[in-house]
């Protein structure tokens, strides 16, 4: 069974293959930490992650405060291209950086599907609860409360491993 990190990386790779206008993309946590990325060498992953989470948060607040209800996306256009941000569930942000002349409609269309896939990966259970009950009854690894047992990994250890995998980047 693939890990959350692997599922996020697969979604990001698929997005980049479908949308050639995208020069770089990243998935960041809502609190501004990188989860996965495929960025050019001149883009700093940590900086992009922090700015993206802050921008999306401000956009959501502005949309709500101005009575526009739930915000769908943020679009920032500059002389040399654009930055697109969209929520990927309640805990992540998908960011795409495009060059001048990119097709914003196509980028947004692909981003919506990718954001759904990322959101699903983030809520996907690590293991089926029944598997854990069966493992516990048989005296093997696993726990319903995420406690460590010899030979098993806790959810915290899984999250740390996935975060580490996300920092290594995605080859697109």
Summed up, what is this model?
It contains 5 helices and 5 strands, in the order H-E-E-H-E-E-E-H-H-H.
Characteristics of this structure?
alpha+beta; five-stranded antiparallel sheet; 46% helix
CATH class call? Alpha Beta
CATH level-four homologous superfamily name: Dynein light chain 2a, cytoplasmic
Strand order of the largest sheet: 2-1-5-4-3
Strand fraction band? 15-25%
- The CATH architecture designation is 2-Layer Sandwich
What is the arithmetic mean of pLDDT?
79
How do the SSEs run, as a string of H and E? HEEHEEEHHH
Total count of strands: 5
Could you give the distance between the termini? Answer: 22 Å
CA radius of gyration is: 18 Å
Describe the protein:
- The protein is an alpha+beta fold.
- It has one domain (4-126): Beta-Lactamase, CATH 3.30.450.
- The protein is built from five helices and five strands.
- Strands 2-1-5-4-3 form a five-stranded antiparallel sheet, with helices on both faces.
- A hairpin with a 4-residue loop joins strand 1 (22-29) and strand 2.
- Helix 1 runs antiparallel to helix 3 (104-123) and helix 1 (4-18) packs parallel to helix 5.
- It starts with a helix and ends in a 5-residue tail after the last helix.
């Amino acid at each position: 069974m693939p890990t959350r990190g692997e599922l996020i990386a697969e979604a990001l790779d698929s997005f980049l293959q479908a949308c050639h206008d995208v020069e770089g993309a990243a998935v960041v946590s809502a609190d501004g930490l990188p989860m996965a990325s495929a960025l050019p060498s001149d883009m700093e992953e940590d900086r992009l992650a922090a700015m993206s989470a802050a921008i999306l948060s401000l956009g959501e607040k502005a949309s709500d405060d101005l009575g526009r209800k739930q915000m769908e996306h943020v679009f920032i256009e500059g002389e040399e291209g654009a930055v697109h941000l969209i929520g990927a569930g309640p805990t992540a942000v998908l960011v795409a950086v495009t060059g001048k002349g990119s097709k914003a409609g196509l980028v947004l269309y692909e981003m919506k599907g990718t954001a759904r896939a990322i959101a699903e990966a983030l809520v996907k259970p690590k293991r089926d609860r029944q598997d854990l009950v069966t493992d516990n009854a048989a005296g093997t690894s696993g726990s319903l409360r995420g406690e460590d047992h010899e030979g098993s990994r806790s959810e915290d250890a899984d999250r740390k491993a996935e975060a580490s995998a996300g920092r290594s980047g995605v080859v697109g």
